[in-house]
Fold this sequence. Notes:
- The structure is a homodimer.
- Chain A is α/β, with parallel strands linked by helices.
- Chain A folds into two domains: 124 residues, 3-Layer(aba) Sandwich (Rossmann fold); 209 residues, Rossmann fold.
- The first copy, chain A, has twelve helices and 14 strands.
- In chain A, the strands form three sheets. In chain A, strands 3-2-1-4-5-6 form a six-stranded parallel β-sheet, sandwiched between helices. Chain A has a six-stranded parallel β-sheet with strand order 8-9-7-10-13-14, with helices on both faces. A two-stranded antiparallel ribbon of chain A has the order 11-12.
- In chain A, helix 1 runs parallel beside helix 7 and helix 8 crosses helix 9.
- The interface between A and B is large, with 41 and 41 residues.
Amino acid sequence: xxxxxxxxxxxxxxxxxxxxxxxxxxxxxxxxxxxxxxxxxxxxxxxxxxxxxxxxxxxxxxxxxxxxxxxxxxxxxxxxxxxxxxxxxxxxxxxxxxxxxxxxxxxxxxxxxxxxxxxxxxxxxxxxxxxxxxxxxxxxxxxxxxxxxxxxxxxxxxxxxxxxxxxxxxxxxxxxxxxxxxxxxxxxxxxxxxxxxxxxxxxxxxxxxxxxxxxxxxxxxxxxxxxxxxxxxxxxxxxxxxxxxxxxxxxxxxxxxxxxxxxxxxxxxxxxxxxxxxxxxxxxxxxxxxxxxxxxxxxxxxxxxxxxxxxxxxxxxxxxxxxxxxxxxxxxxxxxxxxxxxxxxxxxxxxxxxx
Amino acid sequence: xxxxxxxxxxxxxxxxxxxxxxxxxxxxxxxxxxxxxxxxxxxxxxxxxxxxxxxxxxxxxxxxxxxxxxxxxxxxxxxxxxxxxxxxxxxxxxxxxxxxxxxxxxxxxxxxxxxxxxxxxxxxxxxxxxxxxxxxxxxxxxxxxxxxxxxxxxxxxxxxxxxxxxxxxxxxxxxxxxxxxxxxxxxxxxxxxxxxxxxxxxxxxxxxxxxxxxxxxxxxxxxxxxxxxxxxxxxxxxxxxxxxxxxxxxxxxxxxxxxxxxxxxxxxxxxxxxxxxxxxxxxxxxxxxxxxxxxxxxxxxxxxxxxxxxxxxxxxxxxxxxxxxxxxxxxxxxxxxxxxxxxxxxxxxxxxxxx
Lengths: 355, 355
């Protein structure tokens, strides 16, 4: 894992710094500093309310002095291309020997100035949205491993699928369980230092990418937590979500929902069906390849009062009969317990018997 | 539409010439000649049993003399790259002013020799597997048109989805119906002269590509027949198939099956579920976005005796209650009637009332 200087010039602490914020939340030990000259001198804790003493600095050189060995570029950009400020920060980082971890759609290695510069200074460039060159077509290879595979699915895109898996990973590790996270999007890749943006691969290889990720994550763990993407009912992204389901072949699903969200992201014309229907559709679509059981519900209650959030968690628990929580706001334990109980039961029955 | 010289050197009449054969079957008027020096002097009819007097020739120059204005390269290739014989044929074609329609994964326009040569001779290069640069993310735009949209879906990949739509197109046109075919794969693109290989687009844009194709096809027709791809249960390709369903938002589905096929293509570990289950899953996955009704069954009985084929068609008709036929071997009429009846009913009720 690198030690990041997170590029966030002019936007740290705004909604545009969401990617960097997640990296700080789930991989704080790998963040040396945040670059935002307008906030320089503050601590991350002061800006975000978490992140502790990680400093906000005004320059690449200060970031290097704080121990960074990589520049992380995960900013929100309007339109294509590299913003001028990012470009000059990347150039200076290369000259100072930092690796470049870039989440933009525009690849640094292909840039006519920055690409050659990186090669000249022999620094590593990780354009994390660039798919691997040699992906296979999916073919059910995950059946060959014994590890328990859990996938986060959701009623919509951008609803907490990455977050619940990271909360589960951290909670399980603190209980001594060998759990790994399989990152399928740019933020997850920054956080865990590896992975594939499955929405950026050529369509024929979605399931193959998910398969490769799951097998890789299984090499060092007993439980694989696969980051979900999109929703199998999202008008734009459903293909990605289904390929992920059929490539990772999960034994168990965690279903994610945001109670206040009534229509699909960027698709106000389309109501989100009731949670129970979405769960049933996932199980029906998984079943012919390998049965998957929904074992818990993760609610994103960020925009609800605490009282409403607790009432909604109770209501959903009652309605579905499944352990339900907001793993960020309250406690991930009900979902951790659900995964561990499922895993123990699977192993007791014998992996063969339950497929 | 171009007038093709179909490159089939050393393989015309073998299984490797499948793409060219389909173009001859469904677009014979646009085929000037077939290039295969080992068969030169024969008629296509003599080799395939259809295709009439289209000549097989030994050289590019002979193809030009027969009126070709484009070289079509749709051969099967082991591994990547351009085979030497294809490369020299493409070079000679460019020098003779033929457009290049290339279905290989290796793009001619990007080739360090052929790309510049094509630009020098100012010939058009259509690398049909290259996705358009400006695809949108899918967002339900097909809801805005009034045309009836029909999608071919299937129990597996490579089972007859393109074929049934082309049979329907031809039969409807001969009855005076304005029906268009929306090509989603390389063979369909060669046949109709336009389209997008949806399995070659970046995963985030599958539904957007399907949407764009459906809207384009609707501009000149009353009924849009969307070529299906893969299967929503295929371990490798399900994402493509679901994106196609959610992008094209069909009103009606034609379900395709091959009765003798018991497991998924290249996935012998995975049994194909019963046809009724596959139909129910398609309708369940379409419903939240826009309800789709399965209105007919297309069986591929190529590997059955005529007696067995007729018995199977009767059995499936009985079991599903839906018009069923093998539209190539027997008659597409039951499916044509089903589509026209569905379209008439939709229009009678009013497009609004039935969405």
